[in-house]
What we know:
By secondary structure, the chain is α/β, with parallel strands linked by helices. It has a single domain (2-153), classed as Ribonuclease H-like superfamily/Ribonuclease H (Nucleotidyltransferase, domain 5, 2-Layer Sandwich), CATH 3.30.420.10. It contains five helices and five strands; from the N terminus they run E-E-E-H-E-H-E-H-H-H. It has helices spanning 39-57, 74-93, 103-111, 118-128, 138-153, and strands at residues 2-5, 10-17, 24-32, 61-65, 97-101. A five-stranded mixed beta sheet has the order 3-2-1-4-5. Strand 1 and strand 2 form a beta hairpin. Helix 1 (39-57) packs across helix 2, helix 3 packs across helix 5 and helix 4 packs across helix 5. The longest helix has 20 residues, at 74-93.
Amino acid sequence: MLGVDPGLVGTGWALLEPGAAAPLVVDTGVIETSAGLPLAARIQTIYDAIHVVLDKLAPDLMVLEDLYTEYRFPRTALLMAHARGVVCLAARQRGVEIVTLAPAEVKRAVAANGAASKEQIQHCVQRLFRLAELPRPSHVADALALAFTGYLRAGGRWS
Length: 159
């Protein structure tokens, strides 16, 4: 199960696999783009890199953060939508099923608080997966939280 936290600056991803008692972290990473590049180049970078991730990890299911925005920052949602769109396209081209989750649902599942901060999610994910270090950047923690919530939503099993 691949969790993806789409973003124009950083797109976090995390692959989980079934373990004896709980899912195990297989691999994580971040696709970063430079703010100095034109939007089209940044989107191409995300698209190309997510293709590499999908080819390397071959997940059956991708859990993707749903689009959201704060009313004060509508442009953020528009920019995130570009990143999210190319991630969806790449997954679709590879035949990977996509499940979308609202950020508040993920925060509730991991931190028992739908308004948890990025730092709280990082600490909860660290404890949840017994990681030696805090998952950094926060995009990785968010991707792990997405994959874990997808796992819970599937009843704690892979189909």
